[in-house]
Specification:
The complex is a heterodimer of chains A (423) and B (428). Chain A has 423 residues and is α+β, with helices and mostly antiparallel strands. Chain A is 41% helix and 23% strand. Chain A has 15 helices and 17 strands. In chain A, a hairpin with a 2-residue loop joins strand 15 and strand 16. Helices cover 41% and strands 23% of the residues of chain B. The chains are: A alpha+beta (423), B alpha+beta (428).
Chain lengths: 423, 428
C-alpha cells in the first residue's frame, strides 16, 4: 500500500492510500464531528456504453445499463443492502451520473459496521434472470417520472441539440426500450470490467480512525487482477446538431437552457480551466454582475437563473438555465453581453469580489462531512488534491480568466425551451 | 456544543448555539406570525424585499457586490408554514474572521448588514420603493406558478388545499397569485411595521463565539418599539377526523400519476409530546425499511416512490407516491392496508428497531450541520425552553411498540388526492 498525506488549508489534512490492486482510498478525519460519510465509487457512468476489456473486442451495451446495475447491486444473495443498513441506523443511497456510480452512507453510530456492509454488497453482485426482469418495472416508472420533469427534459433536449454521437446526449436511466435489452449476462460483463479495484475509489470523512479503517478495507477487498479498460471513442463533430429545440409540457412559465458547445481537442479539462470558467461565469451573469441586474429588473429572469461549466470525458459546454417569459430574448442578451465583455473587458473590482466569494465557498466546504466526501470524489475522478483548487482560486489572474472568452462561439450555441401546453 | 436561550425583549428570544466545528458563523432572524388570508401574501413577500435592498444598499447589485466582498456571505430569505403560523426567515452566514485574507471583521460587517436590512428598509413616505416591490411580486407569482412544473410538490400542495379548505392552514405558504397582485409599496410597509411590533421573534446564532454586542443591539432596537399582541406559537389547532374521507381527482397531460393521501392524527402537538407519532410515521413510510417502501414499492411494484411525513403540530400525516394510472386504486388500498397492519400490531420487531435506530442516528448528526441546527431551533418551538436534538433522541428511545400501535389507531384517512394522466382517445 502506498500512502500520501495532503495538507494545505489550516489544520485540515487527509490521507490518500493506493492498494497494490489499484484501489484508491481517501480518508479525512474529523474527530470533532459526530457523524461520518462514505462513498464507494467506480469510474463508470451512463456514457460508458462502448468499451473493451484487456484488449478484447470493443462491445456496445444498452443505454442506461450503469444505472440499472446500480439498482441491482443493492440486491444480494443473502438479502438486500438496505435491510442490513436498517439494523445499524445508517442512511444509505446511491447515484449514477454521466461518468461515475457511487454507493454511499452517512451515520452517527456503527461506522465500521456500516463500512463492512458497503464493502460487502458492492463486491457481491447477484444477478439472476428473475431479479433482473423484475427491476424493469421500477426503472421504467423512474424513467417516466423524468419524462414529466421539465427541468430534466430541458437539459437533455439541450444535450441532444449539442451532441451528434457522444452518449452524454442520452438520459442516464436510458429508455424503456433500451433497458428491455438488459439481462444478467450483460450486467456481469459490465460489472467485471468496471467494478475492478483498479477502476474504483473509496472516500471517507468524519469521526473515524485512518489506520483502523485502512486495515478494515485492506482485509475486505477481494483481490482481482487489474483490468485494462479501453473506452470507446465517439466520432463527435465540433459543431452542434441544431440551434433551437422546443418541447411543450405542463408548466406555467417557460424554462430554458442556453448551451455553448466548446470545441475541444482533448477529452478532459484541466483544473485551471474549470476554475477560470467558473469565475468568468460569475463575471458575466453572477448576482453582482450588470447583466444579472438588467435581466432581473426587466422581468426576464428570477432566482432560478444559474450557469455552469458542464464537462467530462469528451464533452464540454457552458450552460445558462432558468425560467423566463421570453427565453429567446434572454439568450440574445447573454450573447450580446459576452461579446461586449470580450471587447471591453470586465470590471477589475468585480473580478476581485468574485474571487473572494469563490474562496469563501471553498472555506465553507470544510464545514460538512458530506460536501468534503463529494469533493474527495471529484479529486479521485479528476486526479487533483482537495487543496489544489483553493490554491488555484487564490492564484489565477485577471488575464487568465479573460482568455477563456474563447470558449463562446455564437455558431455553437443551442437554445432549449420548454413551453406551456397549448390550450 | 451548547445552546442557551436569552430573553432580549418582549417576545424576542436570542438563542446562542456554541459550536466549534464550523468555519462559519450563521445568524438567522425567525419571525412567527399567525397564518391569515389577510396577511399571508404580504408577510411572505417581506423577507424577499428586505433582502434585496435597504437604505444603505439601494439596489441588489450593490448588496450582492458587498456580499461577494465578504467572501461570498450567504444572505437568504424564506417563508414557511409552521402549524397555524407563518415563519419568515432572514439569515446570513459568513466565514470566520480567521480565514479572511486581510484583517477585516467579516462577522461585524455581516451583523451590521443584517440589522440594517431588517430595521432600515429602502422606503419613502411610509411606502417601500414600488420598483423593488413590483420585481419581487413578479418573482413570487412565477414561484407560485412554478409549483406546476414539479408535479410531486404540486400534488402535495393540492392535497393540503383540499384538506383545509377555508382554514388558515389551507392557505398556500406565499399566498395566491391574486393576493400577491394586490400588494403595494404602502401595504407592504404597513406589514413590515406590524411584523416588527407584533411577531414572535427568535434569533439563532451558531458560531464558535457570540458576535460581540449583537444581542444588546437587538434588545435596544425592540425595547424602543411598542410591542404587543405577540402570538403564542407553541400550539396549533389539530386536524379533526372526518366520517367520510373525500377523494379529489385531477387530470393533466402527464406521463405518470401522483397519489397523495392525508390523515388526521389524534396525537398532536410539539415534539416533546409526539415521539410515538414520529416512530409510527417512520415505520409506516420513513426509510427503505418502512412498510410503504418494502411492500408498496418493492414487493408489489405499485409505485416508484411512496413515503409518509408528518406535521405534528397539526396532527397531520401525509403519504405521497408516484404511480401508473392503472395502479392508482391498488396502491391506495395497499397503503391503507399497511397502516392497518400497524394498527393491529402486525409489524416486526426489526421494523420497530430500524425506525428507532434511524431516527436517533439522524438526530445525533444535527450538531454537524449549521443548516440543520438552524432549522431545528427555528422549527422546534417548545414553550419557555429549548428542546435539544439529544433530548428528542432520548424521547424516541423511550417509545414502546404499544405507544406506536396507540398512535396508529388515532390515525384516520381524511382526503385522497390523485393527479392522473388525461384519458387517451377511446378510453373511458
Amino acid at each position: 500500500m502506498k500512502k500520501q498525506i495532503f495538507e494545505g488549508f489550516g489544520e485540515e489534512s487527509y490521507v490518500k492510500a493506493v492498494l497494490d490492486n489499484g484501489l484508491e482510498i481517501y480518508i479525512m478525519e474529523k474527530p470533532q464531528y459526530s457523524s461520518s460519510y462514505a462513498i464507494y465509487g467506480t469510474h463508470y457512468g451512463s456514457i460508458d456504453t462502448k468499451f473493451s476489456k484487456n484488449g478484447s473486442e470493443m462491445i456496445t451495451v444498452p443505454e442506461g445499463i450503469a444505472h440499472y446495475l446500480e439498482h441491482k447491486l443493492f440486491e444480494g444473495e443473502d438479502g438486500d443492502a438496505f435491510s442490513k443498513y436498517a439494523k445499524t441506523g445508517a442512511s444509505a443511497n446511491a447515484f449514477t451520473s454521466f461518468d461515475r456510480t457511487c454507493y454511499l452512507f452517512s451515520c452517527s453510530d456503527n461506522f465500521y459496521e456500516n463500512l463492512d456492509i458497503l464493502l460487502s454488497f458492492v463486491q457481491s453482485p447477484y444477478f439472476t434472470k428473475e431479479n433482473v426482469e423484475k427491476e424493469q418495472g421500477i426503472i421504467g416508472q423512474e424513467i417516466r417520472m423524468y419524462d414529466d420533469n421539465p427541468g430534466w427534459r430541458v437539459m437533455f433536449n439541450l444535450l441532444k441539440g449539442m451532441y451528434h454521437n457522444h452518449p452524454v446526449r442520452i438520459d442516464i436511466a436510458g429508455t424503456v426500450e433500451s433497458i428491455a435489452q438488459i439481462d444478467a449476462d450483460l450486467l456481469y460483463k459490465c460489472y467485471e470490467t468496471f467494478y475492478n479495484p483498479a477502476n474504483m475509489f473509496i472516500c471517507l470523512v468524519g469521526n473515524i480512525d485512518t489506520d483502523k479503517t485502512l486495515k478494515q478495507i485492506e482485509s475486505s477487498i477481494i483481490d482481482r487482477e487489474p483490468v485494462e479498460i479501453t473506452r470507446g471513442e465517439f466520432d463527435e463533430p465540433q459543431t452542434i446538431v441544431k440551434p433551437y429545440v422546443e418541447q411543450r409540457l405542463a408548466v406555467n412559465t417557460p424554462m430554458f437552457c442556453l448551451g455553448f458547445k466548446q470545441k475541444i481537442n482533448s477529452p478532459y479539462r484541466r483544473l485551471k480551466s474549470k476554475v477560470c470558467v467558473d469565475l468568468l461565469l460569475q463575471l458575466i451573469c453572477g448576482d453582482a454582475s450588470p447583466l444579472y441586474a438588467r435581466l432581473m429588473n426587466e422581468g426576464l429572469i428570477n432566482d432560478d437563473f444559474d450557469s455552469e461549466y458542464f464537462n467530462g470525458n469528451g464533452y464540454a459546454a457552458v450552460i445558462f438555465e432558468g425560467e423566463s417569459c421570453d427565453p429567446e430574448r434572454v439568450a440574445n442578451e447573454i450573447k450580446a453581453e459576452i461579446n461586449r465583455l470580450r471587447e471591453e473587458g470586465v470590471s477589475k473590482k468585480l473580478f476581485s469580489a468574485v474571487k473572494c466569494a469563490m474562496y469563501g465557498d471553498m472555506v465553507r466546504r470544510f464545514n460538512s462531512v458530506e460536501n468534503l466526501t463529494m469533493s474527495l470524489t471529484e479529486c479521485a475522478i479528476n486526479d487533483y488534491s482537495l487543496f489544489d483548487e483553493i490554491k488555484m482560486v487564490k492564484s489565477v489572474s485577471y488575464d487568465d480568466v479573460m482568455k477563456r472568452f474563447d470558449i463562446f462561439d455564437d455558431e455553437n450555441a443551442v437554445l432549449s425551451v420548454i413551453k406551456p401546453l397549448e390550450d | 456544543m451548547s445552546a442557551k436561550i436569552t430573553q432580549l425583549s418582549n417576545g424576542v428570544e436570542g438563542v446562542f448555539i456554541k459550536n466549534d466545528r464550523f468555519n462559519t458563523t450563521s445568524i438567522s432572524f425567525n419571525f412567527y406570525v399567525p397564518l391569515s388570508s389577510d396577511t399571508v401574501a404580504e408577510y411572505a413577500l417581506l423577507p424577499f424585499v428586505m433582502t434585496t435592498c435597504s437604505a444603505g444598499y439601494p439596489d441588489f447589485s450593490a448588496l450582492n457586490f458587498k456580499l461577494a466582498k465578504l467572501y461570498g456571505a450567504n444572505l437568504s430569505a424564506s417563508a414557511e408554514k409552521v402549524g397555524d403560523y407563518q415563519l419568515l426567515k432572514i439569515a446570513i452566514s459568513t466565514i470566520d474572521d480567521r480565514f479572511a485574507l486581510d484583517d477585516e471583521s467579516l462577522c461585524d460587517s455581516a451583523v451590521e448588514m443584517l440589522t440594517q436590512l431588517i430595521f432600515e428598509p429602502k422606503a419613502e413616505n411610509g411606502a417601500f420603493c414600488e420598483d423593488d416591490v413590483q420585481r419581487e411580486k413578479r418573482k413570487a407569482i412565477e414561484h407560485i406558478r412554478g409549483d406546476l412544473a414539479q408535479k410531486r410538490v404540486y400534488a402535495k400542495k393540492r392535497l393540503i388545499e383540499e384538506m383545509y379548505k377555508g382554514e388558515a392552514y389551507g392557505l398556500p405558504k406565499c399566498g395566491t397569485e391574486e393576493q400577491v397582485e394586490k400588494i403595494t409599496g404602502k401595504s407592504l410597509y404597513a406589514a413590515w411595521q406590524q411584523l416588527l411590533s407584533s411577531a414572535f421573534l427568535r434569533i439563532n446564532v451558531i458560531s464558535r463565539s457570540m458576535p460581540q454586542g449583537l444581542f444588546d443591539k437587538i434588545s435596544q432596537k425592540f425595547d424602543a418599539l411598542t410591542r404587543d399582541n405577540i402570538p403564542d406559537c407553541t400550539s396549533s389547532t389539530p386536524t379533526p377526523a372526518v366520517k367520510t374521507p373525500n377523494t379529489v381527482i385531477e387530470k393533466m397531460d402527464v406521463a405518470q400519476g401522483k397519489l397523495c393521501m392525508g390523515f388526521s392524527s389524534e396525537l398532536y402537538g410539539d415534539d416533546s409530546k409526539t415521539a410515538a407519532l414520529t416512530v409510527m410515521c417512520d415505520i409506516f413510510g420513513g426509510g427503505p425499511y418502512s412498510r410503504l417502501f418494502t411492500n408498496v414499492r418493492e414487493k408489489y411494484s405499485l409505485c416508484y416512490y411512496c413515503a409518509s411525513s408528518s406535521v405534528k403540530a397539526k396532527g397531520l400525516i401525509t403519504v405521497d407516491s408516484g404511480i401508473e394510472k392503472e395502479n392508482a386504486t391498488k396502491a391506495e388500498k395497499e397503503i391503507l392496508n399497511q397502516l392497518d397492519m400497524i394498527k393491529q400490531n402486525l409489524f416486526t420487531d426489526e421494523e420497530f428497531e430500524s425506525s428507532i435506530k434511524s431516527i436517533t442516528d439522524s438526530f445525533k448528526s444535527y450538531n454537524d450541520s449549521q443548516g440543520l441546527l438552524d432549522a431545528w431551533y427555528s422549527l422546534k418551538i417548545v414553550k419557555d425552553r429549548l428542546l435539544f436534538p439529544e433530548e428528542a433522541a432520548e424521547d424516541i428511545l423511550k417509545v414502546t411498540r404499544n405507544d406506536v400501535v396507540y398512535a396508529a389507531r388515532g390515525v384516520k384517512l381524511h382526503t385522497v388526492y390523485k393527479l392522473l394522466p388525461n384519458d387517451k382517445e377511446g378510453e373511458n
